[in-house]
Each structure stands twice: as C-alpha cells, then as structure tokens.
C-alpha cells in the first residue's frame, strides 16, 4: 500500500528535507503541502523545489484533507501552529507525525486524550535521530547511579523554543529514575539572572544558540572525583530522515498518541 503524505512546513529546513525523503521513498506519495502563504500554487513553482514537483499547496488544512485525502500529516512548522494542525488532523481522522517542538504539557495531555477517543495514531517525536534517542536512554540509565546531572543543549540561532524538546524530554526521562533534588550550593546566588539555567526538578538545562550549529546535546554527570559526558551531534538534517520514515510507516498501525521515539523503537 502506498502511504499518502501531506507536509506542513514544506519550505522549512526540516520540511524541505522531508519533501525529498517522501518523494524518493517507494512506499509513499506526497499529495499536498500545508503553508500559510503560496495558496493555490504548487511546490514546483517555488525556486527551492524541482520544476516537476507538482504538489498542491493549501493554507486551509480542512480543505487539504477533503481534496487530497492524506493518510498522514507530517508537521515541521513551529510552536505557534503545531497544536492546531495536529488537533485538526485528528478530528478528520488523519494520522500525524510531529517533529515540531514546543508543546505544553496540557496540549500533550489533550491531544493524547483526543487520539485515544478517535483511535487515531499520532507520533510526537522531539528528536527523530536514533543517536539522540540512545543518548537519552543512556542518560536515564546513568542517572540511576550518578544523580547530579546538568543538560547542555546547543542549536542553531533560528530556533524558536528553549529549552529544546530533546532537552526537556531528556530531563523528563531522567526524572523517572532520579529523586527531585536541588543541585549546587544550597545558598548559591545568581549574580546575573539565568546564569544557572532552567530548573527541572533541581536539574539544570542550559540552552546555547549559535549560527553554524544544527542540533547537539551533552548530558553531564558529576560524581566524587569523576565526570561522565554523554553527547550526541546532528551535523545535518538528513540525520533525522530515517526516523521520519520509520514514524510515517509505524503511525499507520497505531490508534493512540506516543510521545518520544524511544517508546516505539
Ligand atoms: P524552519 O526552517 O523555520 O521551518 C518551519 C517552516 O514552517 C517555515 O517554512 C515556516 O514558514 C513554516 N510555517 C510557519 N507557520 C506555518 C503554518 N501555520 N503552516 C504551515 N507552515 C508554516 O524550522 P525547522 O528548522 O525546519 O524546524 C521545524 C520544527 O522542527 C521546529 O519546531 C524544530 O524545533 C523542529 N525540529 C525537530 C527535529 C526532530 O528531530 N523532531 C529536528 C530538527 C528540528 P516561514 O519561514 O515563512 O514562517
């Protein structure tokens, strides 16, 4: 069976890579792109895509679904629009693969309930790279023995949300095995606001934003006279694409929402 795919955010850094990936995959066909501009145009009319890429662009998701009948919507947009896209797709019984980060806990909870009610598969993956999933798993394992931990996530300077979805997810996974406790000196004083980073159950998360970076993270554990560093680097956006393909294929068999690729690998 050929999976009919629509992509929201097709012009973006991740979205344009996903367009290439879906187009060259034998088991998938790209049926539409969702944008907030270029209404009525086709991807072939945009300079960044080949002139034979005759895929219609819609600005209205409901119309896109009615006219092109996708099986799966891949969302690679931004934290302002991803929730509405995911919810609307589910209401139309269209499965979703979401790479966009920046959901609130309440939004995740609400989408999870809706997915269960509609029996509609949805994968929300803060990171599609297998190496990053392993980095999070290894960090969770290490935290059982070395509970003093800080997370440093590093991304390109066009990223909207901080900390990154991967940084937050790593902290949540570590929190499953680590008792909440404040780190550092009990009386420490920040002489400059934010110097100690964001606080997640006493763990600190530091967000670095610089041009030239893609997506990187270090999880640093300190113990008596020792330090363990677990690091992952995505040097380009191809690193995410095998995860995108895996999710599109897997979501076709699912009837609920899964948050994090580590739960289905
Ligand atoms: P990007 O280059 O800014 O791409 C986002 C695209 O979405 C842009 O073309 C933007 O258009 C478009 N867009 C904005 N609002 C839209 C809407 N309402 N409908 C349709 N399209 C809309 O960002 P990116 O680097 O590709 O990242 C996209 C998302 O993926 C971010 O949340 C990022 O954190 C996440 N990400 C996830 C992974 C993962 O493994 N899960 C990896 C990397 C990035 P304009 O530019 O014209 O506004």
Provide structural commentary.
The protein has 2 domains: 3-124 and 238-263, 3-Layer(aba) Sandwich (Rossmann fold), CATH 3.40.50.720; 130-234, Dihydrodipicolinate Reductase, domain 2. It is 30% helix and 24% strand. The protein contains 7 helices and 12 strands. It has helices at 13-24, 61-68, 82-91, 105-118, 130-143, 165-175, 241-251; strands at residues 3-8, 28-34, 57-58, 72-75, 95-98, 122-124, 149-155, 198-200, 203-209, 215-223, 226-234, 257-259. The chain has a 7-stranded parallel beta sheet, sandwiched between helices. Strands 8-9-7-10-11 form a 5-stranded mixed beta sheet, with helices on one face. Helix 3 (82-91) runs parallel beside helix 4 and helix 5 (130-143) runs parallel beside helix 6 (165-175). The two termini are 22 Å apart. The model has no long low-confidence stretch (mean pLDDT 97). The structure holds NADP nicotinamide-adenine-dinucleotide phosphate. The site of NADP nicotinamide-adenine-dinucleotide phosphate has 25 residues, from helix 1. It is found in: Cytoplasm. This is 4-hydroxy-tetrahydrodipicolinate reductase.
